[in-house]
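Example record

The entry below shows one chain as it appears in the dataset: sequence first, then structure tokens.
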Amino acid sequence: MKRALRGFVVAAIGFVAAGGDVHGPSMEGPWLLVLTREGIEDPPRHLTLTQDDTALAAEFTCQDELPLGDGTYDGHAFALAFDVDGEIATFTGMRHGRTILGTFSLPEGDSGTFALERTRVLLDCAEACEPVAPIRFVETDFTDLDKVEEISLFRSAAGHDYSDGCESCRSMKHYYAPYEEHKASNGLIEVFSPVDGTVVSITAEGHGESPEGENKQVRIRSTAHPDHTFILFHVDLLADPIAIGDAVSAGEQVGTARLVYPDLEEVAHDFDVGVQVHSLFGDRYVSFIETLTDAAFAAYVARGAAARSDFVISDADRDADPLTCDDSTFTSTGSLPLWFPLDAP
């Protein structure tokens, strides 16, 4: 839940709030919530409010994985709180015409401003987990494929559980494992932005120490398809580092893969990439390889792949061969492959 609530930094999307007003003390009904951090506006989240006198109850519509909220509204002052795994996220604001404007504070120091506006958009939760059709628009790989020996399958048991609100206990990203000669030290494997876009988040990774400029998770929102955010894990930034709000170009180097962890006395087997797609129903994960154009995927074909499905376990196949998890740790690996070995370059 905590990861899901913090995951408001994702791709912007062009939904428009419409109609209504804050009629006196009543806030009953559907709303769109937009958070802004460090000048970066998040995409809207669909929120359903119920009110009894001045007491409010809130839920993120069709997103059962997110916590419920409660608070108050007296016709002017607004307050809402969510219990996120024992830590409290708070929203406080005031009515300004047909909008509630204020500030928020999430666990672990995440904070900013928010806007809450009525909407006529009603969601059918039966559609929330419909399959996400991939858009093949990415022309640039995020790393040098010639340095990679094998790639984990989307929905495999590689790494740890990384799943969205519609699936569970599976790794919905790809790990890229380099040849041994590229693991001798950090700084040997380039990491590029795969798209023209905006850097919307740079955060410390949870595995290993993350001093300034090292071992960061970088999120880049696509300009062409702003509902798509590309997640680059375990990146050591360049000496002249990117910053939140920076525009980046496809193919622009943002750093190098973090593989050597002196604090853990460990050399990692791999580094990873993910893609998050946003809608009012919430955020879904799709395969990075499914977003590549045919021209970009040709490099994988040259290394022995016959089709993108070589790198993807379908939802149905994973459900038929389920994994087990203890929190985010896999306690079984199933019978389906974890890795696709590439032919030598």
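Notes for this example: The chain has three helices and 24 strands. The chain has two domains: 15-121, 145-341.
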